[in-house]
Specification:
single chain; 745 residues; alpha/beta; Rossmann fold; 4 domains; 9-stranded mixed beta sheet; 8-stranded mixed beta sheet; 25 helices; 44% helix; binds GDP-alpha-D-glucose
Length: 745
C-alpha cells in the first residue's frame, strides 16, 4: 500500500516565533480545509493509502520548526515535510514569478504582468528544490498530487528522476485562453507546459480551462490530443475537469454550533431590521472590489428607499501586501469606501462596514448564515469557494449574486449571474436580490445545495485520485502493446502454419515515411524489392490499402503482383486485374465542397487541396503549425455544416481533412478483402486515424499493428515507421528457412 504525498507551496500549518515562544497555527484556505476534511472524516475510506504526507515550504527558521516538532505541537493528521528556501530566491519565486507574472496573466490582467528573467530563474530553482526533496522522501508505490500555479514545473522535474512515478497535478486558478497564455516568452511557455506534462493527470476546475490548456499545448508544443487524452513523449496523459467542492457537511453542522449561533445572534441584534449584504475576499485586484463598490453606490443612488435599511459588510483578508499592485489596490478600495460612506451615511447609519482582517471560522459561518445577499463579483476566479460556502450555509433565506467570470458560475447557475464590470447590472441585481420573494429564494437555494452536497470536496478528491489510478492502468496497457520479441515469434509461427495469408499495409507513414509533399513519397528500391519478395511467397496475398488515388498507386506499385486499394476502399485492383469502383457515385458533391477548400487554401499559406476520384482532401502539413491547426478547426466546422444530412463524411486525418462518401472506409474494405481471400493468417499495419477503422474491423481476426505512440484500437504498436520494413523482412526470412528445411525456433 503506497502513501499519498500532497505537494503545495504553503503547508497547512505555520510556525511563528513570538518573543521566546513558538506559536503553531493551522492555516485556513480552500485546499487545506479540503484535504484535511478528507482525512479527518470518519465516513471516508482512506485505507488505500498507508500514510498522508504534506510537502511544502516553511516560512519559519529551521530551528523554530525543529523546536515546534519537539514541543509536539504539530498536528498529526499528516506527516509534514518541509523545504527551507533562501529568502531572496523565495521572494523571486513567490512574489515574483508566481504572483507578479503567472497570477495576473492567468487572471487576464496582462498589463500587470512582470517579465523578469530573474523571477523565472527563482521559480525554477524553488521547483527544483521541491523535486529534490520529493526524490529524497519518495518510496515506490507513492501517489504524488501537486497543487497549483506555484509548482507548474515540478511534475517534469520529478518525472526526470522517477520515470515511473504516479503524479497528478491540479491547477486551482484559471488556465487562460491561448491568446493570453502566448504572451509569455517562448522559453517560459515551453517550460510551463512541458512541466505540467510531466504529470499523468492534469486537472482543472472547468471545461473551458481544459480546452484552453489543450489548445496551448497544441500551439506551443505541437502536441496532439484525442478528446482529453494527450500522447506526449510516449506517455498517455489525461486532462479533465474536476470542479472543486466544499465540505458541505461542515457548513451545515455549523448551523447548530453554539459559538456560531452566539456570533450570529449578536450581529442580527446589531443590524436589527436591516438587510445584510456580505462579501469576503482576499485583498486582490482579481476580486473586483472597486467595481463592486461602484455597483453598490449606484444601487444606493437609484434606490434611496433602502437608506438606513441595508448594510454592506465588506471583509477583506490581508494578502500579498508586499507586492506593489496589492498595496495600490488596498488604497483604492479604502478611498472608495470612504467616499461612499461619506456621501450616504447619516449620524446613526453607515452603508458599508469595512474590515481588513481575518475572520474566525465561527464569525465567517455566522455571517454566511445571517446575510440576506452575498455579493461575490470577482473579475476572474478559478472557482470561488466563498460562493459555494455561502449557499451551503443558508438556512431559509439568502440570494447569491455571482460574477459570471468565476469557475463557480458554471455550477451555480441559479445564482443571479452578473458581469462584474457592469455597475448598473450589479446595482439592479442587488435590487432584485433584496426584493426576491422568500419562496423563490428557498427554491433556488435548494437546487444549488443539492448539487453542492452531491459533489462535495470528498467526491472531488476521490474523483481525481481514482482517475489517476485509471490513467496509470491505461499507460500500462500501452506499454504492454509495444510489439515485443515473443509476439513476433508467435506471429511468425502462425504465419508459417497458415495455408493462406493476407498482409494489409497502409502506405504513407507505414511503408514509406511521411514527406513534405505527397508526391515525394515514391517507393525506393528497398521497399519495392521487399514487396516483390513478400508477394512472391506462395499463399501470400499482399494488399496495399491507402487513401491515395488509384493513378499514383498504379504508377508506383502497379507492376507488383499485389492487390491495391485506393481512396480508402473506393477503388480496388486485385492482383492481375483491372481497377474496380465500389458502387457508382455521382461526383456532383465535389463542386459544392471544392470552393470551400479552395477558400481555405487562400486563407492558409502552405495548404493545398488534393482531388481524387471519390475524395477531396485539404492538406495542411506544410503550413505554419499554429495557423494550419486553427484553420483546420474552422474548416472542419464549415465542412460539417455543409455535409449535414448528406451521404458525405468529413475525416480528420493526420494533418489532412478529407471529405468522402459514408461507408467507404478501410474497415469495410478490409472485411471485404477477408471475405474475398479467406485467409487463416491476417496481419494489418497502419499509422493514420483512418487505419483505426481497419483495426476495429479486424481486431478479432488479425494481428493489428499501429505505428506511433497515439492511442489506438490496434492490439500492438511499433513506435517508429522505420521498424516496419525490418519486421516484414522477418516474414520473408522465415519463408526462406521453410524453403531450405529450417523450422522457426
Ligand atoms: C484558489 C483559487 C479556488 C477566506 N477568508 C477567511 C476564510 N476564508 C476561506 C474561505 C474559503 C477560502 O478561504 C477561500 O476560497 P477561494 O475560493 O477564494 O480560494 P483560494 O484558496 O484563495 O484560491 C480559487 C480555490 O483555490 C480552490 O480551488 O476557488 O479560485 O484562486 O474556503 O472560507 N476562512 C476563515 N477566515 C477568513 O477570514 N476562517
Amino acid at each position: 500500500m503506497g502513501r499519498l504525498i500532497i505537494i503545495s507551496n504553503r503547508l497547512p500549518i505555520s510556525v511563528d516565533r513570538v518573543g521566546d515562544d513558538i506559536v503553531i497555527r493551522q492555516s485556513s484556505g480552500g485546499l487545506v480545509s479540503a484535504i484535511k476534511s478528507y482525512f479527518e472524516r470518519s465516513d471516508i475510506d482512506t485505507s488505500q493509502y498507508s500514510e498522508a504526507i504534506w510537502l511544502g515550504t516553511m516560512d519559519a527558521a529551521e530551528e523554530d520548526w525543529n523546536a515546534a516538532n519537539e514541543m509536539g505541537g504539530v498536528p498529526s493528521d499528516f506527516k509534514i515535510e518541509t523545504i527551507f528556501t533562501d529568502k531572496d530566491v523565495y521572494d523571486g519565486f513567490y512574489n515574483g514569478f508566481a504572483n507578479s507574472t503567472l497570477w495576473p496573466l492567468f487572471h487576464y490582467f496582462p498589463s500587470l504582468v512582470e517579465y523578469k528573467k530573474e523571477y523565472f530563474e527563482a521559480y525554477l530553482k524553488v521547483n527544483q528544490q521541491f523535486a529534490d526533496k520529493l526524490v529524497e522522501i519518495y518510496q515506490p508505490g507513492d501517489t504524488i498530487w501537486i497543487h497549483d500555479y506555484q509548482l507548474m514545473s515540478l511534475s517534469k522535474l520529478i518525472r526526470k528522476r522517477l520515470p515511473g512515478a504516479t503524479i497528478g497535478f491540479f491547477l486551482h486558478i484559471p488556465f487562460p485562453s491561448y491568446e493570453i497564455f502566448r504572451l509569455l516568452p517562448t522559453v517560459w511557455k515551453h517550460s510551463i507546459l512541458e512541466g505540467m506534462l510531466g504529470a499523468d493527470l492534469i486537472g482543472f476546475h472547468t471545461y473551458d480551462y481544459v480546452q484552453h490548456f489543450i489548445q496551448s499545448i497544441k500551439m506551443v508544443l505541437k502536441v496532439d490530443s484525442q478528446f482529453n487524452t494527450i500522447n506526449y513523449n510516449g506517455r498517455v496523459i489525461k486532462t479533465d475537469l474536476f470542479p472543486i467542492g466544499i465540505d458541505y457537511q461542515k457548513f451545515r453542522e455549523a448551523i447548530n454550533d453554539e459559538k456560531t449561533i452566539r456570533v450570529g445572534t449578536s450581529l442580527e441584534e446589531r443590524f436589527y431590521n436591516k438587510k445584510i449584504i456580505f462579501s469576503v475576499d482576499r485583498l486582490d485586484y482579481t476580486k473586483g472590489v472597486s467595481f463592486r463598490l461602484e455597483g453598490y453606490e449606484e444601487f444606493l443612488e437609484k434606490h434611496p428607499e433602502w437608506m438606513k435599511k441595508v448594510v454592506f459588510i465588506l471583509n477583506i483578508i490581508p494578502s500579498r501586501d508586499l507586492i506593489a499592485a496589492y498595496i495600490e489596490r488596498k488604497k483604492l478600495i479604502e478611498e472608495k469606501i470612504s467616499t461612499i460612506n461619506g456621501r450616504f451615511s447619516t449620524l446613526e447609519w453607515q452603508p458599508i462596514i469595512y474590515r481588513y482582517n481575518h475572520l474566525s471560522f465561527e464569525e465567517l459561518c455566522a455571517l454566511y448564515q445571517i446575510a440576506d445577499v452575498a455579493l461575490i463579483t470577482p473579475l476572474r476566479d478559478g472557482m470561488n469557494l466563498v460562493a459555494k460556502e455561502y449557499v451551503a450555509s443558508c438556512i431559509d433565506k439568502g440570494v447569491l449574486i455571482l460574477s459570471e467570470l468565476t469557475g463557480a458560475a458554471s455550477e451555480l447557475n441559479e445564482a443571479i449571474l452578473v458581469n462584474p464590470t457592469d455597475c448598473s447590472e450589479v446595482a439592479d441585481a442587488i435590487q432584485t436580490a433584496l426584493t426576491m420573494p422568500l419562496m423563490e429564494q428557498r427554491s433556488l437555494l435548494s437546487h444549488m445545495q443539492k448539487r453542492l452536497k452531491d459533489y462535495d470536496v470528498v467526491k472531488w478528491i476521490n474523483d481525481f485520485l481514482e482517475q489517476l489510478v485509471t490513467v496509470k492502468k491505461d499507460q500500462e496497457k500501452l506499454v504492454v502493446k509495444v510489439l515485443d520479441g515473443a509476439t513476433i515469434k508467435e506471429m511468425l509461427q502462425r504465419y508459417q502454419s497458415a495455408s493462406k495469408r493476407c498482409i494489409m499495409l497502409d502506405y504513407d507513414g507505414t511503408l514509406a515515411p511521411i514527406t513534405k509533399l505527397p508526391s515525394m513519397a515514391v517507393p525506393d528500391d528497398n521497399l519495392l524489392g521487399l514487396m516483390t519478395q513478400l508477394s512472391g511467397i506462395e499463399n501470400n496475398e499482399i494488399v496495399i490499402i491507402s487513401g491515395r488515388d488509384a493513378d499514383t498507386l498504379q504508377e508506383w506499385l502497379g507492376h507488383l503482383p499485389i492487390t491495391l486499394v485506393a481512396e480508402h476502399g473506393a477503388l480496388t485492383r486485385f492482383k492481375g486485374e483491372e481497377w474496380q469502383q465500389k458502387g457508382s457515385y455521382s461526383a456532383d458533391w465535389k463542386d459544392k465542397v471544392r470552393p470551400l477548400l479552395e477558400l481555405f487554401v487562400s486563407r492558409c499559406a502552405g495548404s493545398f487541396t488534393e482531388e481524387k476520384k471519390n475524395t477531396l482532401a485539404w492538406h495542411y502539413r506544410n503550413t505554419a503549425p499554429d495557423l494550419g491547426f486553427i484553420r483546420s478547426r474552422e474548416l472542419m466546422n464549415s465542412l460539417q455544416q455543409l455535409t449535414t444530412n448528406t451521404p458525405l463524411q468529413v475525416v480528420d486525418g493526420n494533418k489532412v481533412l478529407e471529405v468522402r462518401m459514408i461507408g467507404v472506409d478501410k474497415g469495410a474494405t478490409a472485411i471485404n478483402l477477408v471475405d474475398h481471400f479467406k485467409p487463416d493468417f491476417i496481419m494489418c499495419i497502419g499509422d493514420d486515424t483512418t487505419d483505426e477503422d481497419m483495426f476495429k474491423a479486424l481486431n478479432d481476426k488479425a494481428y493489428t499493428i499501429k505505428i506511433g505512440k497515439a492511442n489506438t484500437a490496434a492490439q500492438h504498436t511499433l513506435l517508429l515507421q522505420t521498424e516496419v520494413l525490418p519486421l516484414l523482412k522477418q516474414f520473408v526470412a522465415c519463408a526462406k528457412k521453410e524453403e531450405y528445411g529450417f523450422s522457426h525456433s
